[in-house]
Automatic annotation (TrEMBL), chain A:
GO terms for molecular function: peptide transmembrane transporter activity. This is ABC transporter substrate-binding protein. GO terms for biological process: peptide transport. It holds the Pfam family SBP_bac_5.
Automatic annotation (TrEMBL), chain B:
It comes from the Bacteria. PANTHER family: ABC TRANSPORTER PERMEASE PROTEIN, DIPEPTIDE TRANSPORT SYSTEM PERMEASE PROTEIN DPPB-RELATED. InterPro entries: MetI-like, MetI-like_sf. It comes from Fuscovulum blasticum DSM 2131. Gene3D superfamilies: MetI-like (1.10.3720.10). Keywords: Cell membrane, Membrane, Transmembrane, Transmembrane helix, Transport. One of its GO terms (biological process) is transmembrane transport. This is ABC transporter permease.
Amino acid sequence: MTLVLSRRGLFLSTAALAALQFLPRSASAQSGGRITVAADSEPAQLNPAIAASNGVFYISSKVIEPLAEASYDEAGLRPLLATGWEGAEDGLSITFKLREGVTWHDGTPFTSADVAFSALQVWKPLQNIGRTLFANLTAVETPDAHTAVFRFSAPTPLQLIAKALPVVSSVLPKHIYDGSEIAENPANRALIGTGPFVWGDYKPGEYYLLKRNPAYWQPDLPLAEELVFRVLPDRAAAAGSLEAGEVQLAAFSSVPLVELDRIGKVPGLTVITKGYEALTYQLVVEINHRNAHLANLKVRQAIAHAIDRQFVLDTIFLGYAAKATGPVPANDPTFYTPDVTTYAFDPEKAKALLDEAGFPADASGKRFALRLLPAPYFNETRQFGDYLRQALAAVGIDATIVANDSAAHQKAVYTDHDFDLAVAPPVFRADPAISTTNLVRSGIPAGVNFSNQGGYVNPELDSLIDTALTTLDPAARVALYHRFQQLVTADLPLINVVDWSFTSVASDKLGNIANNPRWAVSNWADLTLGT
Amino acid sequence: MTPALRRILGRLIGSIPVLLIVVIGVFLLLNSAGGDAVDAYLASIGGGDAGLAAKLRAEHGLDQSIWRRLIFTLGRLAQGDLGWSVALNRPIAAVIAERLPNTLWLMGSATALSFLAGSALGILAGRRPGSAVDRLLSGGSLLLYSIPGFWLGLVLSVIFAVQLRWLPVSGIETIASGKTGMDRALDIAWHLVLPVSTLGMIYLALFLRVMRSGMAEAWSQDYILAARARGLSESRIVLNHAARNALLPLITLLGLQAASMLGGSVVVESVFGVPGFGRLAQEAVAGRDTPLLLGVILVSAVLVILTNLLVDLAYGVIDPRVGRGGT
């Protein structure tokens, strides 16, 4: 621990200040099995079946469970509320076997009716991801209390649905939501689920309190008595609270990268990079193909050659990232292929390509100007915007940074198309069909966030995306997505720069952490606090 | 009706146009910023399809024209209804009732600290302008005043909370402690020590400097000469004659600072994790939550108007000329 001041030398000379030492150290007092973790935001509503997002899952996943959770083992999935799933030969139905002996927190038994209700009334019509993923879902049959058969109007690959389960399949209690305005139900704030923790209390701006569910379906779990999510919007405060022992965990990189080196040396604290593999974020340069310069492939190739990925990795991400080769991150166990067109850092080649494209440098070395909109969501996306501006200047492209807050950025890029280049952090969600093909597919209406709003149209790519969406054979799907990566890297509808995951800083007293690829947003049933 | 009461009533009625301008100005300003509450919400959950955005806009009335929404908003406010927060999905009146006390505690204590300590040190400095004490205090206050609030907050937090562990790093009270009554009040006071010191220190410097210059000016006045001629003791001259007259601009400053301190509390509340009014305003802007921001601004404006009214009344007490000669 690096002490800024000596504890004794300077202050104890003053009697008044010395007296302060005898006051109670209220803050660091721990009650039995209470685990306190930092939360950097307070979602508007906490229902994960409606808002399938990490900010919501971070808190809600401890209370409301999905059918299956991501896992490090071979299958990649660990059964939770479903014990098994099987797709029909024709791809038009998927049968889920549900867990028996599970009860909701109010004591009502969990049945297939809850799953049917959640799928048809919530995931399909209301959920940000489910609205697209379950577009072809027509009915859910419940032959018995623990079987649910999903019927689709078009062949739907089991592989896709299975990979999406941890994100899209949070099950809600039908008896609480049925007949009410689902989006307005009070249970969206005081959650009722089947999970290891029951809802305790929420003090806006202060904390969320979850308590041990004594009737949890998995015997002897959960291990912790209470979970407290302490609202700490200020990142320096999160680091300070960890050092002072007021919180035992700060997840989702809420301790800034530049602090990690120092805080990792504090006795009792560890920096952890595991547990986010299924939440990989991609640093992407979005391109507006309506711009005549950028519509030229040679210009896009030049931009790809102008970016020094190693520099971005070392300087912006301080090593906590991996170079991207294409639209699927290298850490994906199923779909990734390195066999794609790559663009080495080569400013001279970039200049030559720009010359070839017919955009020679003028007397001052400039070729053309454009607007660059870095997404404001992460420090790293803003910093990469600054870097990209310099990298482009080095090859004669004069980029002007347009800085917006998130609402303004969303509207400018995804609704108004008022940009030339943008820096975006889309998420890779285990299967390219969930939210990755959207980034390049044409025909998506204006106003859809994190999608192809750059006006890029490639019929070959579109048809490949559509084919993969209804291809049932897993090996054939994987082959199609390899081709997808090759097409994207060859034609550059967008440029993938690096892929990164988050870091956690955790107290050494915590046990069973980072033990699945969605750990921060999983149910923490086995999380423990030692002494 | 007494003249004083009539004056108060007049001031309150006169403030209605001010409030109207504030509301319309804030409404137009926030709506001229790019993106709306639905954009902000969808950004926070990682996006959704176009149908979802349209559906949410219709639910929040954001598909209506800006003028229709303005007229609707004014009508609602005129009935005393602050409305529903889009970002927090709760009634705004309830949110404000929850957050306002925290900020009032923070600002009230910080004001008391900075005013009392600032004027006392100002008297000390202004007792002998140019002396070593004066130069030390004036220099020190200049330094303090030029330190950004968030930095001072972080440094105090690192020293007293992280390293020495004397005080809590953040929060307004111990989480789910079950404390009530006096115990809870002490717990809150304990958590407020650092934020109040941070906010208070910055304004302390301002009060110190104004008091000091008022004192310095007073020494050249005839009434000081007269007091000396009457053979009064030095301490009596300092306190009853020089300081009392130098206090008047400080009272004015107190009213003016109420507004600026609300601004300063945004930063301090964020650094120390105090769920207050300033942070609420910041969340409202980031979430493009027009009704919430209007609620926050409106309540703040009323607070500032009331503070200034109190300052005017205090003026009448301290300086008898004000009440008599005026309206």
